[in-house]
Amino acid sequence: MLIPLLGLAGLLALGAAMLLLWRDVAWRAKGQRRSVGSLLSHYLAVKAAIWLGKRQCLRLETDAQHAKQAQEETLLKRLRKNANTHYGRLHDFSSMKDCAAFRERHPLTSYEDYRELVSRVASGEEGVLTAERPSILALTSGTSGSSSMLLSTRDTSSEFFLQGVAVCLGTMHRAFPATQSLQRTLKLFYRPSWHLSEAGIPIGPNSSSPGTLHHLFNLYTTPESAFQVPTEPEALYLHLLFALKDPSVGTLESNFASTIYYAFCTLQERWQELVEDVERGRVNPGLDIEEVVRHSLDAWLRPDRHRAAQLRAQLEQGFQGIARRLWPRLNLVLAVDSGSNQVYGERLREYYCQGVSFYSPFYAATEGLIGVNLWPEREPRQYLLCPRSMLCEFIPEGSLEEEHPATLLMDQVKVGECYELAVTNAAGLYRYAADGLAGEITPAMTNFRISCSFISHWRCG
Predict the structure, then answer these.
(1) pLDDT tens, position by position, 324-353
(2) What is the DSSP string of 135-158?
(3) Confidence class for position 227, pLDDT limits 50, 70, 90
(4) Positive or negative, the Cα torsion across 349, 351, 354, 356?
(5) d(Cα 456, Cα 338) in Å, to the nearest integer?
(6) Are strands 357-359 and 332-336 parallel, antiparallel or unpaired?
């Protein structure tokens, strides 16, 4: 008799746990009409992000308290891994046992030191700069000069996710608790234009893509097939259309604030077409997209006169504060709004996105992740340097014209001084001083013993 009773108690406990789980899911769904599978996958993704974010934030705090040690360990790991490459043998990486030896024996470099080596990698030669084959050949933005082609490896992507994305997700959920809901995100992303090197290595921008995480599409308002549209005007129209359908959108996200700003400009120009598509439950027949994509997207749409009437009533009143009027539960704009994007962030706050919180998560470049923003509501934006992303050396502003300037390490910089960065990353750059990768050191609003963060004034991305 005892065994059946225990079994019944177990079933009752399981049922109670499932009921509590579903109540939590339903509360976080904020009234959305979605399938159980979609809500559960979204719920698990949010819970995983919260757990990973907390873990990585704690690791960053530990590294920040022991920045010198973390920097040296990161450097030596890179030197050991690439010691048997052409470049590693040329500079005798195997004999370098500490950061001091590396800085003493390896000169500062510029892109000209790598141009021919990168060409060899592009043509298929292995073991030139890195032990592993690059995943892509990344083109820099060229905002501070001509565009360069740099290697990007699996290590680069892994570090960016764990030390950048995960930390920022943890920070976002802490600073903006409403983002822990199951509201969907308008993710503005345009498929980059790729071409292949002689060896078949993809060449293009080193930007994040939702296409690499297919199981996360439930988090976005835009269906998966729309992310494959190759032309920017058509892709933007589709992003806006599916976001307008959903009155419970919680976050507007893009790599840069400029992208979100121009999305609102497009909405202002084409809102009547978009509202008509919502009303009729179709994709604009004049939109230049493949028929198979159109058919897939039309399957997601149903005529919705009620939502169209809501949209039309708000849009006819003008566009000041339109974001919150279209999406009353909008919690956050998630995009870099510092550096060259500062002006777009200001325009969004002052006009389209009045009353909405902003979070500028990273300071990063094609060379790699530099810092993360642990203080979302602070102005101006401040980014704590990530000690395990790249070895960072600082060239004082007054020494930039010297042929062989002395550099400082992360624990040697002075608050209020401006520096240019020289980085050693996971993708074959060693003491690389990139033009325009510069900023000012400021006090960190934290109890970390390393009291500095990095401010972008010139180039960000």
Answers:
(1) 999 999 999 999 999 889 999 999 999 999
(2) SEEEEP--TTSS--EEEE-HHHHH
(3) very high
(4) negative
(5) 7
(6) parallel
